[in-house]
Amino acid sequence: MAQEIIHQVTDSLLTSSGLSLQDIDRVFSKIMCSNVDSADLYFQAVYNESWYLEEGIVKEGSYAYDRGVGIRVISGEKTGYAYSDDLILPALEDAAAAARSISRLGNAPITSLQAWKRGETPLIYSHHNPLDSLSSQQKVELLNKADQMARAASSKITQVMASLSSSYEQVLIFNHDGSCHADIRPLVRFNIQVLAEHNGAREGGSCGGGLRGDYAHFSETLIQEFANKAVAQALTNLEAIPAPAGLMPVVLGPGWPGVLLHEAIGHGLEGDFIRKKTSAFTDKLGKRVASDKCTIVDNATLSHRRGSVAIDDEGTVGQNTMLIEKGILRGFMQDKLNARLMGVNPTGNGRRESYAHIPMPRMTNTYMLPGEDDPADIIKSVKKGIYAVNFGGGEVDITSGKFVFSASEAYLIENGKITAPIKGATLIGNGPDVLTKVTMVGNDLQLDPGVGVCGKDGQSVPVGVGQPTLKVSEMVVGGTQL
Asked: Alpha-carbon distance 298 to 309, whole Å?
């Protein structure tokens, strides 16, 4: 299968552009010299489409195609990077010269390279083009069906917005050591948002999902589930009372609330922040950073998950990396550059938004493993606190670990029971500190439904998050009632 992928992608990106492996050799001969530590060429082609429904009408439909090559040259800690959206040899040579000039200049060109060795590409998702999995008419019908389902769920629903999107990406990577890697990455996503009105009040709700696959994933049953959850969230928020404020126990629900772990903890475990000593986890490898209830991994190998990668954007095979094991910090997420400078192995976390962007350490699917507690017992253990089920936006300071997150769906816990829905709740804390206050971890691990997007240094990539139900013994809750 790996050989088939490489042949298919090579034909699509090189052969169709009139390029050959000899041309790749020629480009590397212009790059490599005694002062260059490493270099790579990253070819990419991506097809994107999106459809958008509002007010019962599919108002927008778009299709885009882009392809190009990014050339990176590394000398010590310095990186030269240039890219071109024109796949012809002169453009590659110009980009190569520009990338090398940005890095430290050297002498003694190296003109001999190894014969190209084709790397393995594990099969963890299909390689079919999702854009072709439904006709245009079927895509419109799917959105209309979601609109009808949401409106039928409650007479209080006054507006429905639904979107459907997919991408089909081919990547081809050549490294200076003579290795060659390729991957084909499908991605689909569906989302529905609703507005509910009652007695002059308006509240919203949303739900959606996706995966590395095709539109067949969005069955009528699943679309109904998305619509019902979005409507339920909006109706719940209509009844919500102002959130309390103060220091109190917080129970985080399973699945999407793992985004708090992703932001408040995950970024601080990326290799570039560790190497530059700007992370709250700097110099803590092998030390206790969390309660012994906490085991957290970054796993790129999960079948068809949104954040999964068979190979990363440097050609390293995706891995399951242990980050925190029973409270002890065990590892970091590494790309090739930071791994080399830190004297460790890359972990398959070198990711980039496109050929126009430089790779850096990024998360894939980051989640906490299940514990032994019954979720019902976790709720029963709280006399007065909040139960946070869904999160909206948030802010994090990587260096200090401080975060602020807004809960888009949350409830009061009173005397061991979930009671009134609340609105306006924000969770305020410090990532490393919060980990030490995890006192119960449920046996109900869930991953998010496939909607995660992570931003870093102006680049966005698809990711996954997850966790079981867990209890933080105390956290600052910002609200409106003291």
From this structure: 12
Q: How far is residue 176's CA from residue 418's CA, in Å, rounded to a whole number?
A: 58
The single-letter DSSP state of residue 16 is G
Instruction: Find, among 338, 359, 311, 315, the residue nearest to 116 by Cα.
Output: 315
Q: To 10 degrees, what angle do helices 89-102 and 21-31 make? A: 20
Q: What's the pLDDT band for 30 if we cut at 50, 70, 90?
A: confident
Burial label for 43, CB within 10 Å (0-12, 13-18, 19+), is: buried
Do residues 449 and 434 make contact, with C-beta atoms less than 8 angstroms apart? no
How many Å apart are CA 442 and CA 444, to the nearest integer?
5
Q: Give pLDDT tens digits for 31-61.
A: 887 688 899 999 999 999 999 999 999 998 9
Distance between CA atoms of 269 and 398, rounded to whole angstroms? 9
Query: 86 — phi, psi (to 5°)?
Result: -115, 110
Q: Are 257 and 403 in contact (CB under 8 A)?
A: no
How far apart (Å, rounded) are the C-alpha atoms in residues 251 and 427? Answer: 11
Q: Of all helices (H) and strands (E), which one includes residue 385?
A: strand 384-396
Instruction: Give the H or E element holding residue 292.
Output: none
Amino acid in the structure at residue 367: Y
Neighbours of 239 (CB within 10 A): 12
pLDDT bracket for residue 161 (50, 70, 90)? very high
- Pairing mode of beta strands 117-118, 157-175: unpaired
Is pLDDT of 431 > 70?
yes
CA angle 172-165-306, nearest 5°? 60
Helix 136-153 and helix 220-238: axis angle, to 10°?
40
- Cα 90 from chain centre: 35
**pTM of the complete model beyond 0.70:** yes
Q: How far apart are CA 168 and CA 185, in angstroms?
A: 6
Closest-CA residue to 17 (of 49, 40, 45): 45
Three-state SS string over 393-430 comes to EEEECCCCCEEEEEEEEEEEEECCEEEEEEECCEEEEE
Contact 186, 166 (CB under 8 A): yes
- Quote the tokens at residue 176: 């200076």
Element (H, E) at 63: strand 57-75
Q: Using only the alpha carbons of the chain, give its radius of gyration.
A: 24
